[in-house]
Design goal:
Distance between the termini: 38 Å
Radius of gyration: 16 Å
Number of strands: 7
Largest sheet: 4 strands, parallel
Strand order of the largest sheet: 1-2-3-4
Structural class: alpha/beta
Shape: globular
Strand content: 15-25%
Length: 170
Amino acid sequence: MSKVAILNDTHFGVRNASDIFIDYHRKFFEDFFFPYMKSNSIEHILHLGDLYDTRKHINFKVANASRKMFLEPLRDAGITMDIIPGNHDLYYRNTSDLMSLKEMLGYFTSNINVVTEPTVLEYGALKIGAIPWINAENYSKCVRFAETASADWIGAHLELDGFEMMRGVK
């Protein structure tokens, strides 16, 4: 049976590229995440979007830190990753044509698969439907996929109108 770690909303560069949050991310990956992956023989990650925090630009300090603390250790450990774009990964709100994932992960294409279309991903016997951020351009395709996909479960990066994300916050 394949084991898959699921991440989402890492938001590298959060709070205006705050050194405090960069250090928090570094400690999480170095002290917890990668040691857990190794001790549990997990060799694959499914990331459900928002790798980076800022839609319109990438800070060089953030690009450097995310490469050193996440992307290089991922590659060096032989871990593969499927990742769908979230709203913060897309430059435009109405199309998926321009995204940080394609631009920033170019050197890591041997172990990272950017999933830009609704897709059923197979991890051994486990079938996971992956739905990227829904926008005007892909809305019909994503809805049709959600209604018809043959998968054990579906992972997506969504904004659900009226959904209460935290008590009292819609």
